[in-house]
Amino acid sequence: MKVIVLAEKPSVAKEIARVMGSREKQKNYFEGPKYIVTWALGHLVGLAEPEDYDKKYQTWVLEDLPILPDNTRLKVLKETSHQFKTVQHLMKRPDVGEMIIATDAAREGELLARWILKMAKWNKPFKRLWISSQTDKAIKEGFASLKPGQQFDRLYESARCRAEADWMVGLNVTRALTTKFNAQLSAGRVQTPTLGMIMDREKEIVNFRSQEYETLQADLGSFEVSWRPAGGDGRLFEKDKAAKLKQKLEGSTGKIVSVKKSEKTEPHPLAYDLTELQRDANRRFGFSAKQTSNVLQRLYEQHKLVTYPRTDSRYLTSDMVGTLKERLSSIAIGPYASIARPLLRKNLSPGKRVVDDSKVTDHHAIIPTEQTVLLNQLSVDERKLYDLIVRRFISLFYPPARYDNVSVTVQIEGEQLYAKGTTIKDSGWREVYGGDYDDDADDEQDDAPGQSSGKLLPELREGESVKVVRCVLKPGRTQPPKRYNEAALLSQMEKHGLGTPATRADIIEKLVSSDTIERQGQSLHPTGKGKQLIELVAPELRTPELTARWEAELERIAKGQGKPEPFLRGIRDMTKKLVTDVKGSEAEYKPHNVSNSHCPDCGTRLLEKKTKRGKLLVCPSDDCGYKRSGEKRLSNRRCPQCHKKMEMKEGKAGLFVQCLGCGITETLKKDAKHVNKREERKLVQQYSKPEFIGSNLGDLLKAALEQKGKE
Fold first, then answer.
1. Do 645 and 555 share a domain, yes or no?
2. What are the φ/ψ torsions at residue 273 (nearest 5 degrees)?
3. Do 9 and 115 share a structural domain?
């Protein structure tokens, strides 16, 4: 009997087929002596739509909500139905006796495979391929140690609950908001609280009132100190007080009352999980979370250079220790040779900061594979991301960085002034980064004002006398909180349990594509639509606490500590309440993106929407559907009066050109004869005689062109 292998994508199926000897290529699968390898093209089966339960739901009506079927149905997705038929046909072959699920080894991968098995009515044995990289070695080892399919039943139940919860909440609240306020308003259990966090930050910024302040620094000749009161941060908000303090200290003498030295050790950063890698790539290269996910997927799937991307663990497992030298050997080339080769001559004994089985669930941290790397085959973005992963991996085997901290306290005229200095004793793991490693944490905090820190200090002794050479008051202004960039937002989403490493990038992109937030440089700003939307949804859906509880419950279900039925009952009750709140709302929604252009078909003012291809003008009327590009399209025609290029537009009669400055309009007809510029000027002059005085230039040109056509 043969075994059917179900992969998630054609590219993965191709590699499995090659490694496992299935060399006979068919249109939608590969076949060999033992294995038939096919693929799922992502989801082939999904949850049924409301109209699949009742045709009346094709029309969105507020009174029909909430839509909560007693028994959830599945349906074959239309766009991939041809591939489902292939998979179903292969499952029903009499010579097929077993199935191996080889979709992504994660919650979503388990879900899409189980739905296919359920829809195709598979009732034969099945096993699970659970691997963390796509190398030939990993595939062979995975097939040699297949796991029983039932071992992942709880993971499937967790995934099913997630999908059904998103369907109930997202579909019902979105339909309720859209029909109630007659606008395309989308909400969901994860995207809405994420928008809520961005909006909360926006309110903090809007309500912030900036204040001017000054800080005082004193030059003592060989080093500088900053004034700071006990328990304060050195900011002086009263100008007269600052001036008096400067006058008091200027030219005064004092003494060093304290010199404290302490040796600090700084261990290497933990290995990357997906969220930390997305944060780092955003901080260093400006990559969006989605961009990092896409590039990382190519490194994993196409180049086979890194392990499974969508992990939430930053540790390795003990059974991987034996593979570490092989991985280091594969990357000890080019820019990494000098920092990786010394490790190959040592015995690697990583500690609990690297290897900890208790902190690895489905997948270990993202690290390089044993695959030999050819750097010249990687794109610029792939090189950048690969460099981050490789250097982080190498740094795991370097010792901590050691440095001396020096804190100095100076007393002058009864005032306390401070200085801090740092002396590197052993760069340790920082050597991997050439000393250029900057960990900005969440990019949320700046250095406290009025502190002299990080500078090299001379040898200083307690009791030593000092004299103020010069005092300087440095002006400053209190700053509002920073708007979230993607790195900071990912940190907050992770902190509050919003989404998973695999879904957070898509949540951010969904908020952007639905025009509720927008990117301005590296910052994320709420749009006018987003600002209104967050006020229209129920308060409990705006904050992350509720969704975080749901996500924690899904994790409990995956571990067998919780049950699906109580969770889904709670979601149904919550959905009913959310819809009731929308129905009873007395709020109003005003489109924020109304343009000055009118629909040529129905006369309604068009709405301006941002797309990946630029601005789009769309008619909001339900029964119209008119849309056109909102970008200015300049034609090669020039205005006969001001000679500027005319803008191309579209109306009921078709295309026309118009000069925005002069107002001259010309229609464009496919059968119109070409008139060159010289003839155009001649015709305008000919018909600009006294008998034509009183006509506008557009009429003159029209008459001239008509005359030319007759000739």
1. no
2. -105, 180
3. yes
> Does position 449 have pLDDT exceeding 80, yes or no?
no
How many CA atoms, within 13 angstroms, populate the side-chain half-sphere of residue 218? 31
Q: Is the distance from CB of 586 to CB of 560 less than 8 angstroms?
A: no
pTM of the entire structure? 0.79
The torsion defined by the Cα of 257, 263, 268 and 274, in degrees rounded to 10, comes to: -30
Residues 675, 680, 684, 685, CA torsion sign:
negative
For residue 588, being part of any structural domain is answered with: no
Is 1:98 a contact under the CB 8 Å cutoff? Answer: yes
Which residue range(s) make up the domain with 622? Answer: 594-626
Q: Which of 74-88, 467-481, 623-637, 659-673 has the lowest mean pLDDT?
A: 659-673
* End position of a domain, from candidates 603, 626, 649: 626
Instruction: Catalogue the active-site residues.
Output: 308
Question: Do 327 and 470 have their domain in common?
Answer: no
- Residue 35 near residue 3, CB atoms below 8 Å: yes
CA dist., res. 617 & res. 595, Å (int):
8
Q: Is the dihedral of CA 373, 376, 378, 384 positive or negative?
A: positive
**Do residues 262 and 405 both lie within one domain?**
yes
What is d(CA 185, CA 419) in angstroms, rounded to the nearest whole number? Answer: 54
- The helix (run of H) or strand (run of E) holding residue 15 is helix 10-19
Q: How is residue 567 written in tokens?
A: 């969770």
Report the residue count for the chain. Answer: 711
Residue 182 tokens read as 């007659």
Q: 102 in a domain, yes or no?
A: yes
The two three-digit tokens of residue 706, written as one number: 């008509």
370 and 409 in a single domain? The answer is no
Q: Measure CA 323 to chain center.
A: 32
* DSSP codes, 511-570: HHHTTSEEEETTEEEE-HHHHHHHHHS-HHHHSHHHHHHHHHHHHHHHTTSS-HHHHHHH
Residue 602: its pLDDT value, please? 83
Helix-helix angle 504-513:191-207, to 10 degrees: 70
